[in-house]
From TrEMBL:
Gene Ontology process terms (BP): phosphoenolpyruvate-dependent sugar phosphotransferase system
EC number(s) from the headed UniProt entry: 2.7.3.9
Intracellular or extracellular location(s): Cytoplasm
Binding locations of Mg(2+): 183, 207
Transmembrane parts of this sequence: none
The PEP-utilising enzyme C-terminal domain, residue ranges: 9-292
Main localization of the protein described in the UniProt heading: cytoplasm
Provenance organism: Oscillochloris trichoides DG-6
Chain sites annotated for binding phosphoenolpyruvate: 48, 84, 206-207, 217
Single GO cellular component term: cytoplasm
Official protein name in the record: Phosphoenolpyruvate-protein phosphotransferase
UniProt-annotated catalytic positions: 254
Amino acid sequence: YTYALRAEVGLPTVTQDGKAVLLLANASTVAEVQEGLAWGAAGLGLLRTELLFMERPDLPSEEEQLALYAAVGAVMPGLPITVRTLDVGGDKYLEAFPMPHEENPFLGWRGVRIGLSRPELLLTQMRALLRAGAHADIRIMIPMVTTIDEVRQARALLQQAMAELEAEGVEYNHTPQLGVMIEVPAAALNAEALAREADFFSLGTNDLTQYTLACDRGNSRIASLYQPLDPAILRLIGMTCAAAHRHGRMVTVCGELGGDPQATPILLGLGVDELSCGPNSLPLVRAAIRAITSSDATKLAERALACANAAEVQALLI
Ligand code: PEP
Ligand code: MG
């Protein structure tokens, strides 16, 4: 099927009734960005930056980070590029500074919590992103946000980084967008308040599923509990979209669910504006977007929200 879908790479990602849905790629390396572009991505919805920081004894310098972000920008000139700030902790460790053993690492020192307690780390990354943003449409996204205070602190750091670059006479993006990953249930439940402070939302459905269903995403013993289509999660997605739209913010899905063509109609029906997925999923999700109408998607989402469990939702999709 992929061969046949290759011919559709250039076709617009619009629904049958003409609603445009931005289709973006997830990537961790420049090679993956190139692959995403080859499969017709309209930009990046998630550039993971962990690889740059891991398996080395030191932290990457601002210049080294700038080189990667600029290289990514050069592959996708003019297209939106959403870069997630460092998201280690949980099961990902850094050698550059001690990350003590924790009883519950996924509920511990992770994502933006590390960035805010090590502000020089986040500041350096933001400076590099602002500098790369002088020549590319680079947006900054904060992982693992739980409270509005984290967004405010991240924004203050971003402003500090801009003030520093201004004082140094270095070129930078004067109007950076700062977005928030919605992957903790509290963030979805407080989306209304977060939407006032964030420029955009991106749903991390992998962690949102893990935290909502209290189910370790990597534990095979409870794998049957890990159901991204559970109505509880769909409800959180719908609430997030409604709150975002009341404040004129866009919502992307960048978790695995964004790359599942079976889920595409439900996600669009719940109000998701943009989908981001691994390069290999792009053709299937493009075909799924092009196959549906907005009103069918809305009706499907309503029926899914009335379901009692993921199996009932799944049954609607066949
Ligand atoms: C997610 O949680 O859905 C996500 C996109 O982030 P990661 O998979 O990198 O934790
Ligand atoms: Mg995540």
